[in-house]
Amino acid sequence: MFVSSRSVRISRSVRIAICCSCFWLTGWLSADEGMYPVSEIEKLNLASHGLKMLPGDIFNPNQACLIDGICKVNGCTGSFVSPQGLIITNHHCAYRAIQSASTTENDFLANGFQARTLADEIPAKGYTVRITEAFSDISEQVLAVLEEGMGFAERTKAIDQRRKELEKAAEQANQGMRAEVAEMFAGKTYVLFLYTYITDVRLVFAPPASVGEFGGDTDNWEWPRHTGDFTFLRAYVAPDGSTADYAEENVPYQPKRFIQVDPNGVEEGDFVMLIGYPGRTARHKTASFLVYEEQVRLPFIVDLYGWQIDQMEAAGKENRALALKLTSRIKSLANVEKRSRGQLKGLRRAKIADGRAAKEAELQAYIDADPDRQKQYGHLLSEINNVYAEMGETAAFELNLQNLTSASRMMNLAFSMYDSAVERQKPDLEREAPYMDRNFDLTRKRQLLNQQNIDPATDKVLLSGMLDRLAKVPAAKTVDALRVAQLKDNLRNNYLDSMYTQSWLIDKNYVEDGFAKTPAELKELDDPFLNWVIELYPEYLKLREKGKERNGRLDQLYGELVAVKQQFQNANFVPDANATLRLTFGHVKGYSPEDAVYKSPITSLAGVIDKTTGQAPFITPQKIMDMHARQEFGRYRNEKLDDVPVAILYDTDTTGGNSGSPILNAEGELVGVNFDRAFEATINDFAWNESYSRSIGVDIRYVLWITGDVFGATHLLQEMGVKE
């Protein structure tokens, strides 16, 4: 177990590298594919690809190194760029903080935000920062709880509880830190990560949305790109260096290492690497999983999210105050919807499921060629196929029921409140993770933030739409608690009107009090949304139990599948991304997405001007237009472009969670901030291809020009050590 040191800092000497034999062997690398655990980079021979620093300067368990300058910002990545806790990440990663602080009088989304002094910095509500401090392979400790004859759901619960026990013990031994057990290979390997955990995060500088999200959804997931997708935040701690919630006496966090900014940027062909917290990939999943994604889940998401976006955009079109309430959610849904469309297109065009099925046929032949292998592994692929086939058969009911309590924020709030009340009657380690003592305060705060953005009229439209969908699902007609879905339009409309009129969930004080009540006390409130959730709750418990049973089956099956694939290929594998610290590398590089078309890898300010129409999402602040006309580029003029570079393209291997990852040059200096992928690369979650897998970042020269020259925040450039 980890050993705590004085205050919340963990000693460098107790960092423990992940057991490399769990993952991959030297010689595996054939292209630049891979999101590598940072402990493995010694084996990558990065010098042959262009790295000009020692791998030990990137990751070293015994001294300060480059990864100490990298942090996780909610679900994104960020970089410390000064010794005073200044963080650069994406505008879209900080979007909710900017939106939450905005009003019609102080519209920071439209006009941008700048704090001239530390005292002017404002809370980024609901944001946390994590810095990886240590990690250890604990697979044996986790898997030791499994017993012969366990049911699949029982297996899942046993592993979940063991993970919680290990996390809680690590946090007790390292006060103020955050522990998290990550599954590296399903049912096979587990790693305990220990994080410095910062809860006081403040907004420092954000460009106007006309810069930070220039091109909007039209350009999202596309190249060429001309978006200044960056924002500066700052991490704060208590005066003694410990983690503390927002307080005036808190001081800027001092990272062990910060990333030096290189204002000279990069050129085509230059080596680059990214370090960050990529989300989830599925490259070790079977063809049957890909078929489920292609035929069931992704089409469902594209249709449902597209409809929700349309409803919310229409609601806020003529009302800026309402638009501000809805904009963060719209942006989040739009990002997932377009990514899902790209993934669908890629899966179908590249026939990825067919390709994986062909490889599985070879694996099955290998298994069947030996009686002992056939006895041990012969059933694997067919049993995995059966799980996804079952999921496909029940998807219409399950997906719509799940989204009933996510599409409607009122239903989501009521469900979270009641679910937490039920779970918090249990011993801490037996609760669902969001309701454990270590997580509950954050869960409650995030629900309160969501509650502030509820618009009852819009919410009613979304709820009614979900009921329309459920009314068409045969299985829903057998659930008495969903009888409202079968009501005719006028009757249902009147019923929903009365629910919204009578509910107190739009009252913040009511909600705060509600999260402190027992299930019986919530029932006594007689709130219509809570009453409905209480009636529906048994159905959601069935879904939860079914999910645990499926996860248990798949974890065991996939664990065995990895073992036999390792035998067949005589190699180990890089584990799928799982929101833990990874490194990927490549070069600034264009690509050819279709016949006779080549897209070069660096865009310029001239492209911003050319795209500007004066209509959203292609609006550019007049000052930028004027400075471009006068060619006022300062030190950020690139000789080849004769202009300010705006965005860059490179062939690193990224996915969601890499948003905000630093783009680092061969010396480990910051030359950009990653924010997107090309449309063709949305299938990176399932497969990587060196010909079209491209990632997109904002060029550091554009960041510095916008921050210092355009908006005059030269104090931030000075703090970062950038000379005028």
Report on this model:
The protein is α+β, with helices and mostly antiparallel strands and 724 residues long. Among the domains are: 1-30 and 129-198, no CATH class; 287-568, no CATH class. It has 23 helices and 21 strands. Strands 2, 3, 4, 5, 6, 7, 8, 9, 10, 11 and 12 form an 11-stranded antiparallel beta sheet that branches. A hairpin with a 5-residue loop joins strand 19 (662-664) and strand 20 (670-677). Helix 8 runs antiparallel to helix 10 (352-368), helix 12 packs antiparallel against helix 19 and helix 13 (409-423) runs antiparallel to helix 14 (437-452). The radius of gyration is 26 Å and the shape is globular.
List unreliable stretches of 5+ residues: 1-31
From the alpha-carbon coordinates, what is the Rg to the nearest angstrom? 26 Å
Main β-sheet description: 11 strands, antiparallel
Distance between the termini: 48 Å
Q: Average pLDDT value? A: 93
| Helix/strand structural class | alpha+beta
Total of DSSP H or I helical runs spanning 4+ residues: 23
What is the approximate shape? globular
Number of strands: 21
Name the helicity range: 40-55%
Task: Report the portion of residues in β strands.
Answer: 5-15%
